[in-house]
């Protein structure tokens, strides 16, 4: 084939990840290479579709390609939407010879990925993340899921994508608060595995906080940072794809974040909740003697430089948060468990378990 699209990144993953400005214009070619099929179902949301999905649909034959859209927002990531999408695919005549292309943020990626993982026991899915957060986290690693009233991502499947196509150019159209929110997962990657990467994210965070995608040298710097994050995530999931141990470190900040999101009925951006969660969980690590005093301050400084919140809204009842942490997927035998940092770049291994049980009393003190 011709090489109109770039080489994938060199990563320890069983599928290619492409990351380059303009690569979205070659998704048709990439999909034909990694998942040749008779039909193409592009799944997006109604905000992203006119910006990016329509142009992707146009790269495939009109008579065998269809765009399926859902309303934007976490509220649609449900079993009901999964049923609507799978019914719509069946009605259209989709079969095992169909490739799904997920175009959107983490909600669309998780939802379309779950549709692909279950439809006729599994279709290939090409993930095309359009938010910074989805580029650096949700699109890579094969986790797919929907939320339930009991908590986030509680019904899902591991289903590796056929390819991930990251085009940092699409970040130019992202609302600034959504762009900033992506920095939370990048800061997380630095904390869990790579102190120099943490410093690199920090050096650029305030520029994006103040100028969004108009920050100096945005295209080149954000591409380098996205690749850095994808590399860290790829190395973790390559070692532990199904979250038996090490992969739990990617959940740093998320036990509290998911609880906060649930208590606030998903009105907070995911990255903002992760920012709050990382500071709170670093405080937990300090209070049980795993981390030295000062770690939570360093992480609070980092998230504030990115323009993200570092504290829980004062009106949230702490007991509600604590109750919600018990619905987390890491909870075992009635105890909430936390993936906790020892220092920037190092996580507590907990003898290979990579998460530790923490009492409600300790969590409450750390949060208050
Ligand atoms: N977002 C956490 C993970 O992929 O494991």
Helices, strands, pairings?
Layout: E1 17-19, H1 27-34, E2 39-45, H2 49-57, E3 65-70, H3 79-92, E4 98-104, H4 106-118, E5 125-129, H5 132-138, E6 143-148, E7 151-158, E8 163-166, H6 176-193, H7 195-211, H8 218-239, H9 254-263, H10 270-287, H11 295-305, H12 318-325, E9 337-338, E10 341-343, E11 346-347, E12 356-357, H13 360-367
Helix pairs in contact: 3-4, 5-6, 5-8, 6-7, 6-8, 6-10, 7-8, 9-10, 9-12, 10-11, 10-13
What does this structure look like?
By secondary structure, this protein is an alpha/beta fold. Helix content is 44%, strand content 15%. The strands form 4 sheets. Strands 1-8-5-4-2-3 form a 6-stranded parallel sheet, sandwiched between helices. Strands 6-7 form a two-stranded antiparallel ribbon. It binds glycine. Glycine binds at residues 137, 141, 143, 247, 250.
Q: Tell me about the largest β-sheet.
A: 6 strands, parallel
Instruction: Categorize the overall geometry.
Output: globular
- Portion of residues in beta strands equals 5-15%
CATH topology of the largest domain: Dehydroquinate synthase-like, alpha domain
CATH architecture assignment name of the largest domain? Up-down Bundle
SSE string, helices as H and strands as E: EHEHEHEHEHEEEHHHHHHHEEEEH
Low-confidence stretches: none
* Ions and ligands: glycine
By DSSP, the count of extended strands is 12
Helical residues, percent: 40-55%
Task: Classify the secondary structure makeup into a structural class.
Answer: alpha/beta
**How many discrete domains?**
2
For this structure, what is the CATH homologous superfamily of the largest domain?
Dehydroquinate synthase-like - alpha domain
Whole-number mean pLDDT? 95
What is the helix tally?
Answer: 13
- Enumerate the strands of the largest sheet in spatial order, edge to edge or round the barrel: 1-8-5-4-2-3
